[in-house]
């Protein structure tokens, strides 16, 4: 068996249901995962929408959610039809899977996780109960799929028994590449405007712009509560910087399609779906060399954060003044995305790993 033809898969995301009305990257990844699993020929059911999430480290909330989860386990064991595999997306200390291991064990079916975090430092302190539950859930997994090499470090260190750790590169939900960019328009940055890491990336962008040469232009797609701060950072550059606001899919596709390059420093990005989208359109990427992003960027000499905005500006100046360099980088980016980061590749990797598990549990 190399696909899921005729199989029935239980899917669960403790942090946020794929059906949540609140947009987020977590919700989109969960939806995309359900789609690529189903692409293997299986029926994929979201078997529970119980949200297990403690943002603040509240021991009473953790206790209450654990009791609610026990009730949900009993409900599922009474009501859930036979399934061949349980898949949980995003198990970590604030949102542990309190349901999947118990149901999978009772039903004698394989249990796998996608994106699971081991956080031994949280086994003491306000999240101790949930951290232990997340750790135990990870131990229960026959296979854990990880997105980046950075994720693998703790998973490998604390691997339980003969548990398999399988690389599932971040992917775009489509089967084919979009039309390539013309590479002759303004630079493009895409990011939410909120305090913290996103604002730090915008600050680096503003610092970098002051070192650029020639007649450059930048479009910024995104919005959020820190927009006024971002606009103030960019004010010295006048109409060279244009704010596009929050774009829908068609608007964002159009922005990628006319951009000359994609510029986003990537402060503390897990990997950043916008990097995949930009490279699918063939945009050369200017970013800093940071963990996680290395897994989704074409091989190149990205400057280290400590090299500062001057190093980023040097890369931008080189790309803007050399159309042949842009064209070469564009072709490399599209080739990498087509080979590794589209839905068919993700579906094939998933089923290659789980098919043997289900064969062992007839």
UniProtKB/TrEMBL annotation:
Keyword flag Transmembrane helix: no
Top-level taxon in the UniProt lineage: Bacteria
This protein's UniProt keywords: Transferase
InterPro entries named among the record's database cross-references: Glyco_trans_1, Glycosyltransferase_grp1
Pfam family, one: Glycos_transf_1
GO molecular function: glycosyltransferase activity
CDD domains: GT4_PimA-like (cd03801)
Domain Glycosyl transferase family: 212-336
PANTHER family hit by this protein: SULFOQUINOVOSYL TRANSFERASE SQD2
Protein name (record): Glycosyl transferase family 1
Provenance organism: Phaeobacter gallaeciensis
Species classification: Bacteria, Pseudomonadati, Pseudomonadota, Alphaproteobacteria, Rhodobacterales
